[in-house]
Structure formats: structure tokens, C-alpha cells
């Protein structure tokens, strides 16, 4: 079932195309083309016109299929947005647990359908607020969590048996997840009922986002523990959100984002299978997280290629039989790195275009950045505009009326094929190195990304790529934007709160629970139940993480540039 | 005529913030400009940065922060340098720094702040104009 026409018609098209190109050459002999070279934001060269010739080999059944059918190029569910819109999931976290809880209540009231938590740097790195390494960082870029009490305050009054919660946490993911399970259980909610996502993707941390604690190998072991535990005990939880977002933010191209993310997914799948788990028992709970950058069609093609590639990987490489294992379900965030401090209101427009690409690419959930995110944590007003952007796309623009509206576009299909081919070539390279863990140890992805980031910055500096308000259409005028400031007294209050909790707890129980956890780490028992027991005694985040550090050692940034 | 020695610059990432895209791009730009570059890598404490800057005998120290802790970390590095009697290492900063913080940082001894959108060649030019090899 070919996508295009029979041989005779194709021959005619080829002839007509040649004639048209000649005509065009005539025109550009007199005037000139607007640019010397037309390329995407990832510097992929784009032709002036795409025709049936560009998708000549494409087969409707094998390459596209219907939504909800292998290889899922057009979407993972048959109904897509005709059934239910994507989840509008705005990432929030600021100051204390109580401050963030207030923001959560506001977002839920404004129509948001899922929570997403940002943690502050000490929490992300597994330090308590009173650690010397945490000075000046408390609550600055997310919420501070030291103990179970903070977690209880964070979700106070929110129906966590009905609402799903996404938590952007990596090295201490098992601990934060353990605290969430403890909050639920202390409220009488069964762990089997709760739903949500922990990011828990350490490979991309070594590659791009750079919050790390233990070396890659033991990090992968802890992740595999969470996958095993989730599969058996928390079946509605997405145990890893395999993330390309940060890889892209670190400066990769769209194809590198695609390739490195799926290669990470391959590594997690292999690790879980080596643990003895059946692929169809855990793979359906893997979810993905991509960036939606500026180049509209390149992004849409990336999302479509990602779905098709993952389906092939799961089915052909890992012999997964369950359709749900083949699904690449993904969350999208618009590109923070594309926002400009200059003329910040333009960021609303950039975000809207990126959100539109994510929707046309078939995302399952979406965070839209606020216009002020390049300056500070969003104010409530800016976050509301960002949420409204999604609501306008969903309910006014009409793009959600039909599924995969760009399917069949010569350009988008050709670009989808091309990106798949290039990304599979990179994955092959990583396989040849011995897999992603080995590639990371060789700094392969880190170097590739650094090269791309530098190349892009050079293009901007040389005016080969336009950034409105930065290297073109520059104005001296500075529009005032309200900035949310996090009060420095917060750090003091948080430390006092931490000390109150520590003074009130039974230290003997804390010590015993941590010792048991240490034994589980040193042996090969799954750590999750030991963590849940420890946090219930009010062992702090850092106390639990210190057990990991002591057992597995600490990872240090190799400082490559 | 004695050829002036190359400028030695250190690019540092203080604090727990992992956003190193800018720092690494700047490090490359400095290298391409012919400077000798030392990049500390991530997650440095003010103490470790100061120690490294003195040990490496740098002429300039550039710090990058994108997660909001600059108001503590940048002045703390300057304070520790001064406490060790180092007055002539030029200290700069960059990253997500709100405008209203800049005067306070300059008062604390940060010579210049480069915010998002700064061009690489402008930063390099600034360094050439304001940083001279220290007298040993």
C-alpha cells in the first residue's frame, strides 16, 4: 500500500518538477534567494519544495498506519484528542512546601488536570537545607523537601488518590517517591491506587542535566530497583520518564535528542530484563519527555519519528508482545533555552508556536513555559498566560479536531523518515561502543552535545540564525516584568523546621532503618521498601542519600567543554 | 621585546546548579580567543573555587549561575579571595541574573555581569580590555 502514485504518474511528476526547478533557477538568476542556505534550528538543510518523489518508498501500512496501530507514527491511541485532550501539566515549585501547595491549589482551580513538581537544587542533589553545600539555594528554583513532613505539607488538601503527580527528581528519585508513597499510606490510600511519574532518568543526567550523586552503574541499579518495585507494587506509576528535554536544553540537535533519549530507553530496558523482569510487565510504564523547540516542522517530525522508532525497538529488538510496550507516550515542555531576556513578551509567542508543534506531534501532556522563565521562577500571572496558551490551542484553534493533521505532508513525512534514519545511525554507534553506559563513560554524548551547542551559538553570533530581539529587531527599551523573588528568610525557616522534625523523632528507629537500608544497598535486595520505612521514621532526604553515597561512592563532573 | 604571556582564565560553576551549557560555551570561546582556560566542572563550593583560582594562578575568574543562588555564591567567592589577600584576580559573573541584582553584585566586587543574549565576541573583547596578565 504505497503512499504515492503509480510509476507513470511518478515519472510525470519528476518531469514537471524539473521544469519547475528550471523556472525557479531563472527567477533566482535575477533576484537572489533570501538566504544562502535554508536550514532548521538544528542546522538540517531544507529543500525548497517536497513532492511525492520524497516519499516514494513510503508505505501507508508499514510506515504510517492508523492512530493506535503499529508503528504508531500517527499517534499512540486510536482516539487521540477526539477522545480526550492532552493533560495540561504545568511544572511548579517555589519556596516552601506550603508556598508550592498554594500554587498547586491555584492551578487545579484554573483547570489544570495533573500536578508537576519542581524541587530546589539541594533536594535535587540529595542534600538537606542545613547542609553547607545548600547555602543560598533553598527554595530558589523549586520546593525544598527535607523530610516526610515537607512532603505532607506539599500535598495537603490535594486528592492524590484521583490526581496524578509528576515529580522531576533524579538522583534521590527513590527517596522522594518513597516519601510520596508514605504520604499516601499515612492517609490510608493504597500504593496500588496512586498514579504519577518520577523522572528517575539518571543517564540523561550524566549526559546533560548534570544533577548526580552516585556513579553511572550504581545509579542504574537504583533505577532498576524502582522499575522492579513499581511493576510489582505500584502498577499505576510511571517509573521512568526517559528524557530528551534536558539533552536538547544542553544544546543538542533534534536528531541527537531523539537518538540519545531512545538509547537511554534501550539501556533501561536491558537493565530491567537482566534483572529478570518480563519486558511486557514493565515497559508499558516507561514514559518519555521531549523538548518542543523553535523549528515547527522539525519538532513535529521528531515526535512522529520517536513513536515509530520506539515501537520498532520494543517489538523487533526486545520482542515485546504487548501493544502497550510499543507505545511511546510522552510529555512535552516548550524550550526554555529558546526564551530571551530581551523583549520578554515575545516569549509568549515562541511558547505558543512550540506548544502547537507538540500538539500536532501528538503529545500526551504539555508544560508551556512562562514568559518570565528566562529571568526567574514564573509569577502566578505569567504561569496563567502559559496555561491559557494551551487552552486556546485546545479549544479555539481547531488543531485538535483531527488526528495527526500533518500526516501525508510530503515535507513532514520526508523529514520524519530522515530523522529516523539519522537517529538510528547514532544509536548504532552507541551500540557499537557497548551501549549508553559505555558511551557516557567515554563522554561521547557529552562531547557531541557540546559541539552542537557551540555551533549554534556561533551561528547566532554570526547572524546566520535570527533570534528576534537579540541579534535582529533589537530595541533599547526594556519593558518592566514583574519578578518573583524568593525571600532569604525561607532558608532560615526551613532549617528551623528541619531541626524541629529531627528533635521530635525517635533517633533509634531512624538509625535502625538506615542501617537496614545500607545492608540492602550493599547486597542485592530491592531498596524501595527500606526507603519507605526510613522516611516514615522521619529520616531526612540527605540521611538516606548519604547511605547511597557511602555505599556506592560519589560521582564528580569530568568538566568537559 | 618580551612577548606578553597568555591570559589565564578560569570558568567556574559554583553551587549545585547543573546548567553548564553557557559555562562550557564560554570556556570554548575563551580557548578559541587564545586564552589559557581552566574549567572547574560542576558543583563547586566557593572555597574550592578560590583555592583552584589561586593554585592555577589565573588572571580572571568567571562564574556562571542559573538557579538563583548567585547573590550568596558570587560575593562569597570575592570575600574569600580578599580574605586570602588576593585583590587582582578580576571576577565576573554570568547566567540568569535579574537586573536589580547587578548593582549589588558590583558593589560586592564583581567586575561585570553578562546576562542571556550576550555575544561571545563581546565578552572576549571585554576580557581583553579589562584583564591584564597579573604580575607574578
Question: Can you describe what's shown?
Answer:
The complex is a heterodimer of chains A (561) and B (136). Helix content of chain A is 50%, strand content 6%. Chain A is α/β, with parallel strands linked by helices and 561 residues long. A five-stranded parallel sheet of chain A has the order 1-10-9-8-7. In chain A, strand 4 (165-167), helix 6 and strand 5 form a beta-alpha-beta unit. In chain A, helix 20 (507-522) runs antiparallel to helix 21 (528-536) and helix 20 packs parallel to helix 22 (541-552). The N and C termini of chain A lie far apart (49 Å). The model of chain A has no long low-confidence stretch (mean pLDDT 94). Chain B has 136 residues and is of the alpha/beta class. Chain B has a single domain (8-129), classed as Cobalamin-binding domain (Rossmann fold, 3-Layer(aba) Sandwich), CATH 3.40.50. Helix content of chain B is 39%, strand content 18%. Chain B is built from five helices and five strands, in the order E-H-E-H-E-H-E-H-E-H. Chain B has helices spanning 21-32, 46-55, 70-83, 102-107, 120-130; strands at residues 8-12, 36-39, 60-65, 90-95, 112-114. Chain B has a five-stranded parallel sheet with strand order 2-1-3-4-5, with helices on both faces. Chain B is globular and about 40 Å long.
